[in-house]
Amino acid sequence: MNVLLTGGAGYIGTHTCVELINAGHTAVIADNFSNSSPKAVERVEKITNTKIPVYNIDVCDRESVEKLFSENKIDAVIHFAGLKAVGESCEIPLAYYRNNLDSTLTLLEVMKNHGVHNFVFSSSATVYGIPEKVPLVETMPTGCTNPYGWTKLMNEQILTDAAKADSRLSVVLLRYFNPIGAHESGMIGENPNGIPNNLMPYITQVAAGRLECLGVFGNDYPTHDGTGVRDYIHVVDLAKGHVKAIDYADSHKGTEIFNLGTGTGYSVLDIVNAFMKANDLEIPYKIKQRRPGDIAECYADPTKAKEILGWQAEKTLEDMCRDSWNWQSKNINGYE
Length: 336
Ligand code: NAD
Ligand code: UFG
Prior knowledge:
This protein has helices at 11-22, 38-48, 62-71, 86-91, 93-113, 147-165, 199-207, 235-251, 268-279, 303-309, 317-330; strands at 2-6, 26-30, 54-55, 76-79, 118-124, 170-176, 178-180, 214-217, 229-230, 232-234, 254-260, 266-267, 285-288, 297-298. By secondary structure, the protein is an alpha/beta fold. Bound molecules: nicotinamide-adenine-dinucleotide and uridine-5'-diphosphate-4-deoxy-4-fluoro-alpha-D-galactose (UFG).
């Protein structure tokens, strides 16, 4: 299939682009580079030895999206493009709603005009809100605690309604848990702007000497060592889940939701210790106050993706820690 990847220059988009091409598909990227670099796409071209058409456009801009669809025969869309910082979404909620909702509406309208019916959406485990219990199953109640999360849940609703009204449409909603790691070449990886909010990029920047010390946000949670537990998944495993998802969309109609996680929860200190062991490095850390809005535990029940998509995560925590550092150490300042 010829797959349009919106946000294809970003962290998950670049890794998915590699796996799609490895699986024999072709890709077109649409990205406005608001949180990424054209160099990331050049690296994907090097890894795959393939030239990829890239459109530097805002996917909320209908005219530009129309032009892309007129110039390329698209079979499926994977919609990664979006703003994703939880804290920032509380400061500028309207920008989040505008960007994250308008992009989906524009894509759905243009896809309809061009007879394209396969849509895979990047949702998030954040839609489970404050979980009553873990592991999380797709049928459990949803609810959000911040505007970013609401944009994910609203998009899920928009896409579900669109598929109900148009029997030709296939929608796959992928709820990602915590992607970390990088392609084994070390040529592409996560490249946050400014000081990272997320755990693994913070750790790798401490290891690289760009930051002094990791703050561990709370050690009084009801978990095995008191620190927060998450379901960390290697980004290459996550990327492979998208290849399964477009195949599924192409052969099924309607909407289906899948958790993409490993099913195993690790605490902050588990991650710090695994990183130090895998890379033979010291990571200085200090226990700090809990971060407002954080939950104690969040991990997936990945059974549905295994049974229906035939997908499961294969890489280990050691792989994730080694590949995160391989990327960071080879690219101390990211793509700059
Ligand atoms: P990213 O910021 O690296 O990639 C997103 C890309 O979209 C960037 O390249 C950015 O420039 C582009 N973009 C944003 N708005 C755009 C617009 N209007 N038009 C064109 N391009 C636009 O983020 P990522 O980590 O690769 O995440 C991809 C998707 O997965 C996002 O929707 C994110 O919300 C979702 N997600 C990410 C995580 C995570 O932890 N990384 C977890 C759950 C869900
Ligand atoms: N943490 C620290 N120190 C840090 C950063 C994080 O101790 O410097 C802790 C957090 O308190 C949490 C764990 O590490 O216990 C993971 O935190 P992340 O910020 O890496 O990830 P979150 O689970 O908080 O959030 C991620 C995405 C969100 C998404 C959410 C649910 O960043 O966008 O998963 O899918 F909404």
